[in-house]
Amino acid sequence: MARAEITKPVIAVPIGDPNGIGPEIVIKALSEQAACADATPVAIGSAEVLRRHNALMGLGANINEVDLSLSGFLPQAVNVLDIQSPGLDELLIGSVQGAAGLAAFSSIKASCEMALSGKAAAVATAPINKESIKAAGVKFIGHTEMYGALTGTADPLTMFEVRNLRVFFLTRHLSLSDSIKACKKDRIVDYLKRCWEALGNLGIHEGTMAVAGLNPHCGEHGLFGNEEAEEIEPAIKEAKELGLAVEGPIGADSVFALALKGRYNSVLSLYHDQGHIATKTLDFERTISLTLGMPILRASVDHGTALDIAGKGIASSVSMTEAIRLAAKYAPYFRA
């Protein structure tokens, strides 16, 4: 069957952990006009899993299988590239299972291959469950590590976007004490260079990046810590000498508000919760994670699999829709 004419960027949407809310929110999002206004989203995963969730929750979607060339694509349907993996008939919605983790990884791998081959302009991911991934024997802890390995990227960048606030992260899944130890001049300079390059790859060339302070009031000249004076300020000075438009350090209690108002095009958060709290408090559902610095563009919901409500039909698809929209927003500008 010939495919319908496709004029909008193709966004590959791996359905995440099949025992979680991923299949539900993918079905809901792909059934909404908002997600399809500027994108051609295609679910990547088991078509049977989607049909099972669709029937269980009475979502009423038309689950339509397509091939890699999107032959048979239907504009008004939930189009899916069917990806099989072992144990799908043994899945128990709401449970941690190795088969679920393996299915999630299989769909992620397929989406990556699709993007690398140019058959998809970007990827927008539904949530996976780290326990199921571990039970499957998959050695990667999360999406970022998976896509990094699959694309040969040693240290992908994470950037959150919500409204006009963009936040990069110097460290991610480290303890607070280890994050502080990682705030070294050379690392910060390296990240500032890479963050600016990543912004350029999204078509963002104007404005100034801010660096958040680590300690209260940026240490108050050593009263509350020496990291700013010994590591962060020298890093910013060197970045400026390299021609980067960077300011800081700026107290974390104000820098995100200033960026939201437009003073800065982005903020470098120095540790995980510093940036997560700022963005998710602003708008939890619409905070979207972008994985940058790779040869492909990946957007993602920033919530988990919610096994406790999986299969109940009450999960919100707002974040999934926003991830697809953000992937489509940057896809025309993205340069690896």
Protein architecture, described:
The chain is of the alpha/beta class. It has two domains: 10-153 and 295-330, Isopropylmalate Dehydrogenase (3-Layer(aba) Sandwich); 164-279, 3-Layer(aba) Sandwich (Isopropylmalate Dehydrogenase), CATH 3.40.718. The protein has twelve helices and twelve strands. It has helices at residues 22-30, 33-36, 47-56, 98-116, 130-135, 143-151, 176-181, 185-201, 227-241, 255-260, 272-282, 318-330, and strands spanning 10-14, 40-45, 63-66, 78-82, 122-125, 157-162, 165-169, 209-212, 246-250, 266-269, 288-292, 298-300. The protein has a twelve-stranded mixed β-sheet, sandwiched between helices. Helix 9 links the parallel strand 8 (209-212) and strand 9. The protein is elongated, with a radius of gyration of 20 Å. The two termini are 33 Å apart. The mean pLDDT is 95.
Helix content: 25-40%
How many E-type strands?
12
**The CATH topology of the largest domain, please?**
Isopropylmalate Dehydrogenase
What is the total domain count?
2
Choose one word for the global shape.
elongated
Strands of the largest sheet, in order across it? Answer: 3-4-2-1-5-12-11-6-7-10-8-9
The count of helical stretches stands at 12
Give the C-level CATH assignment of the largest domain.
Alpha Beta
Indicate the structural class: alpha/beta
Strand content: 15-25%
Biggest beta sheet summary: 12 strands, mixed
Quote the average pLDDT: 95
What is the oligomer described by this structure?
A: single chain
What is the architecture of the largest domain at the second tier of CATH? 3-Layer(aba) Sandwich
